Amino acid sequence: MNDLGHGANVEIMCKTYNKDSKNIIDFSSNINPYLINNLENYILDGLRECVKYPDINYTNLRKNIANYLNVKSSFIIPGNGATEIIYLLMKSINKRLAILNPTFSEYERGALLNNVDVINLYLDKDKDFEIDINNIKENIDKFDSLFICNPSNPIGRVYDLSELLEILTKHNKLLIIDETFMEFVEKEEKYSLVKYIENNPNIFIIKAVTKFFGLPGLRLGYGVCSDEKLLENMYKIKEPWSINTFADVLSNYLFKEEGYIKASKKYFIKERNFMLKNLNEIKEIKAYKTDTNFILIKLKNKTAKELKEELFIKGDILIRDASNFRNLDENYIRVAIKSHEENLELINQLTKILGE
Q1: Using CB atoms within 10 A of its CB, is residue 257 exposed (0-12), middle (13-18) or buried (19+)?
Q2: What cofactors does this protein use (predicted)?
Q3: What pLDDT is attached to residue 1?
Q4: Is residue 214 within 8 Å of 33, Cβ to Cβ?
Q5: Which residues pair with 122 in a beta bridge?
Q6: How far apart are CA 266 and CA 293, in angstroms?
Q7: Cα separation of 96 and 329, whole Å?
């Protein structure tokens, strides 16, 4: 198997260092550590439905997602995780794609595997990874679509994309936004572009239940777009029954969990402020401002590889070595925001290794 360079490689690390995965705190995987109430009962409902095929048209699933987002169900294409949507999209768009880096590597991988020409553009590292609008304007004739993760992975910042959207719409370019982490943002309604979907076919949004609802194993993602032709092209090549019954059934409950949604958002707003304050008191690191459930950190006198190994051996903690993201180097790591007790343990272990 190829190493695709993602986080959550707990088993590989445990095998390498002869540790039990049950004892490891995984800060490399940035998902909500809390689950909705009654999840076991909902899973049992899904189990009862497993004796028959899922609806091949995903009628109920699309309706539930549409109600959650307040859009038409015809604008929804569900997938086996956000990754399926990314790969279907790469098979369906025009063959020149710009990607704003550093970002999730599957955008570029999916594009290249489908013979899409990629132009890599970069967030401005010298300005804490601001969007360089002038650079995009300078390269506007070199691409047909532009891919951005908002909030950004691995940076954690959320961007106001109104100016970018205006520029791309004016030039009839497709703006693809991965909003997988958008639910963590305090003023989600301000930054999400879902509100523009119906009247602007030049927007394609990717979302999932993976991160915010803490269910990566469920493999439920979805695309949102009002371009009927683009969605039709994606449906034509989509494999049948790629979404399992559990995902279909759980959609009846997940998106209606208003208490869980509010509590999770409130927790991460408070906890990321706590973590940023404490992490930036450690002189050997710079923790970047974040609007989501993970934090990008730059190490001043140690490599990511060295710190990852020390934390794993001495503290039973796994972090994400972020050096393989484009435009980052060997001094960058990413850590998830987990439970308060686990976050305290990370801070304590970093202080021990790096000093106050």
Answers
A1: middle
A2: pyridoxal 5'-phosphate
A3: 46
A4: yes
A5: 101
A6: 12
A7: 27
Return the bridge partners of 336, or none: 294
Type of residue numbered 5: G
CB atoms near residue 18 (< 10 Å): 6
Name the pTM for this structure.
0.95
> Strands 221-224, 76-79: parallel, antiparallel or unpaired by DSSP?
antiparallel
pLDDT tens digits for 86-124? 999 999 999 999 999 999 999 999 999 999 999 999 999
CB 281 within 8 A of CB 229: no
Give phi and psi for 296, each to the nearest 5. -85, 135
What are the tokens at 291? 């609007």
Residue carrying structure tokens 């169900």 = 73
Assess contact for 336 and 293: CB atoms under 8 A: yes
Per-residue model confidence (pLDDT) at position 263: 97
Confidence at residue 285, expressed as pLDDT on a 0 to 100 scale: 96
Which tokens hold the place of 310? 């020390």
Closest CA to 121 of 106, 144, 103: 103
- C-alpha 29/C-alpha 211 separation (Å) is 9
Residues 59, 80 contacting (CB under 8 angstroms): no
- The CA distance from 266 to 148, in Å, is 26
- For 27-48, b/e burial (b = at least 16 CB within 10 A) is bbbbbbbeebeebeebeeebee
**Nearest CA among 112, 267, 82 for reference residue 179:** 82
pLDDT in tens, 299-328: 999 999 999 999 999 999 999 999 999 999
